Amino acid sequence: MRVLLTGGSGDLGQVLAKQLIEKGHTPVALDIQPAKTLHGEFIQGSILDREKLPGIFAGSDCIVHIAAWHGIHEFRQDKDSYDFFDLNVKGTFEVFQAALLAGVKNIVFISTTSVDEPDSYYGMSKILAEQIADFYFRKHNLNVVTLRPRAFIPHWNHAVYKSYVEWAKWFWGGAVHIDDVAQAVLKAIDYVSSNGQLKEHLILPIDGAYEYTDSELANWDREGPGSTFRKHYEKYIELVESKGLDPALKPRKLAISQTRKHLGYEPTFSLGSLLRELSEQKD
Ligand SMILES: NC(=O)c1ccc[n+]([C@@H]2O[C@H](COP(=O)([O-])OP(=O)(O)OC[C@H]3O[C@@H](n4cnc5c(N)ncnc54)[C@H](O)[C@@H]3O)[C@@H](O)[C@H]2O)c1
């Protein structure tokens, strides 16, 4: 399959392109800038280029619409309200309209759990973008799956995380690894491409794997601070404390039963995986 990735030079696009090649597909990254390492084809261009977009999309079997400014850009005030509207809202309209004109029926739209933060420009822009995706599903019968990952900036993005420990401190609160997000996207590509006309626009949250059970989370640290952590990861306690990580911090876990059911998504990277990597002194 020829899979067009908008924003394909970014973190997710790069991980996806590599995995798509491994599966025998042809990824085509459309981005305003090239990736550090090229996987697959690259087209330098913008999703806001109304004239050229249908021609760029033509012949694609599926589009993964990734390009957007996101939480980090709002947090750091790198991008303003106009930037968020132009790329995330108008850009999403341009992508769906061009897909329609180009005859590309299958689209995986990357949204975010930040739709639960409607008072942020990012949240607002993705709420509107999801509505655009839904419109093209309902009115034009495009096959659309929307994925809502929680934050997944990888530890190797050193513009954001200076070290593995800094990334670990963020992951600690509950998170998803970028490889698991890529797994969900690959499964969503298969889903939109192999189920004929979809009857439903699925909107699915993406979270990581957890060793903690729901019951342990509900009864967090009943036996004292750090006690739940120790039940699973006792052998790492010294390492964790030496790195300034807090064993008493309770992670927030998302409900992903629908994602499991529809896509067969099964996240693999957990706090246990992180601790193994940390003990291998990634830092
Ligand atoms: N990174 C996260 O933690 C996270 C969490 C939840 C959802 N998301 C969503 O995932 C997607 C991006 O994730 P990422 O981590 O790969 O981001 P990223 O910032 O690494 O990549 C985004 C890419 O979009 C490109 N881009 C910007 N303007 C463009 C334009 N006009 N046309 C084409 N490309 C353009 C950028 O050059 C960049 O390469 C976004 O839709 C975001 O909302 C991200």
Description:
By secondary structure, the protein is an alpha/beta fold. It has 2 domains: 2-209 and 253-269, NAD(P)-binding Rossmann-like Domain (Rossmann fold), CATH 3.40.50.720; 211-250, no CATH class. The protein is 43% helix and 13% strand. It is built from 12 helices and 7 strands. The protein has helices at 11-22, 53-57, 71-75, 81-102, 121-140, 164-171, 178-194, 214-218, 227-233, 237-242, 257-263, 271-279, and strands at 2-6, 26-31, 41-44, 62-65, 106-110, 143-149, 202-206. Helix 5 links the parallel strand 5 (106-110) and strand 6 (143-149). Helix 1 crosses helix 7 (178-194) and helix 4 (81-102) runs parallel beside helix 5 (121-140). The longest helix is centred in the N-terminal third of the chain and has 22 residues, at 81-102. The chain is globular and about 60 Å long. The mean pLDDT is 96. Nicotinamide-adenine-dinucleotide binds at residues 6-7, 9-13, 30-33, 46-48, 66-68, 70, 87, 91, 110, 112, 149, 151-153.
